[in-house]
Every structure is written in C-alpha cells, then in structure tokens.
Amino acid sequence: MKKLEIQESRDLFEKIKDYDLSKIIERHKKDEKVDTKTAELRAIELKKWLVIAKVNATKKSYKLTGNIDKIWHTFLMFTKDYNNFCKELGGFVHHSPMDTLLLKEAKNNNDLRTQINNTFNNDYSNLLRDYEDVFQMTPHISIWPNVLNPYGAFNDPADPSGGCSDNTCQPNSPGEVG
C-alpha cells in the first residue's frame, strides 16, 4: 500500500470504528455460538477489513476466509444496516462469491485447483500485509487464519457446494465499490 492509502485507511477506520454493530454482534453470537467478547472482536476486525477493501477497491481484490467471512455474512443479512454502514464508509463493498461452477470443476482438475489456490493465497497474503501496514500490528490469529487453504471443500468429495459455503468469499472485484 502507498502511504496515502495507508493514511486514508487509518482516517477512515477512526471515522467508523465506533459504528454500532450490536445487532450484528448479537446475531453472530447466536449463529456461531460464541461469547460477546469474541463476537465484538470479530466485529472490530470486520470493520478493519471493510476499510481496507473500500480504500483499495479499484486496485485489489481481498479474499476472505474464516471468522471475518462468517461475521460479514451475518452483517450482509441486515441489508439496511449494511447499506447505512457502507454510506458511512464512503462506498458499498459488494459481496461477490467465488464462481461455484469453476470451484466444482476444480475439484477434478489439479491444475485449476492449484491456480485458484495460488490466486487466493496471493490475494489473502496481500490483505494480511496491507492490514499490518495500516494498523501496525499482526492480525489476530484467532480471527485471521494464517493457513492458506481456503478450499477445504476440495478435500471433501461429499461437499459439492464450493463458493461461500466453505466460508471462502471474495469482496468486490476491482472497481466494484459504488
């Protein structure tokens, strides 16, 4: 990230860090069976991710996995709240699930699976690096997995769903904040 983007991200996070996500936190606690402290930490980290995704929307696509993806899905169910938050953020961060047909094809195509995993790993590594640049800290390991194996469904022939069902999503494609 460039210095200007880092500062823009920091300024934007300061603006939205206290935005009330209590409804989302309560729903996430119920759905994921986590305690309040865990859900609140995930909500803070989600705000950080949304800031980075918004500031870099025209340049990078940040893939998600794990707990941040889970709480983002919870937030997306509250469409009015999510829309209002994105207005405060300065632009809508769209949800673009991975192509389910491509993921199904990759289950039986090692070259394609490797290509998808390499792309995900590269994008996810960029996200973690940019996170460290902006927030000057290492992402919390319980929130941000460092294991870059997003397509667990490939290892499970009984799970033909692919896409977001295995908690692997991508936000907007470059330029898709609106």
How would you describe this protein?
This protein is mainly alpha-helical and 178 residues long. The protein has one domain (3-171). 57% of the residues lie in helices and 5% in strands. The protein has helices spanning 3-16, 22-32, 36-55, 67-77, 79-89, 100-107, 110-135, and strands spanning 64-65, 95-97, 168-171. It has a three-stranded antiparallel beta sheet with strand order 1-3-2, with helices on one face. It starts with a helix and ends in a 7-residue tail after the last strand.
Gist of the model:
Helix content is 57%, strand content 5%. It has 178 residues and is mostly helical.
- Which structural class best describes the helix and strand composition? mainly alpha
Number of strands: 3
> What proportion strand?
5-15%
Spatial gap, N to C terminus: 21 Å
Q: Overall 3D geometry? A: globular
Tell me the major beta sheet: 3 strands, antiparallel
Helix content: 55-70%
Low-pLDDT residue spans: 149-178
Q: Counting H and I runs of at least 4 residues, what is the number of helices?
A: 7
Secondary-structure element pattern, one letter each? HHHEHHEHHE
Mean pLDDT metric: 80
Strand order of the largest sheet: 1-3-2
| Structural Rg | 16 Å
Give the total of domains: 1
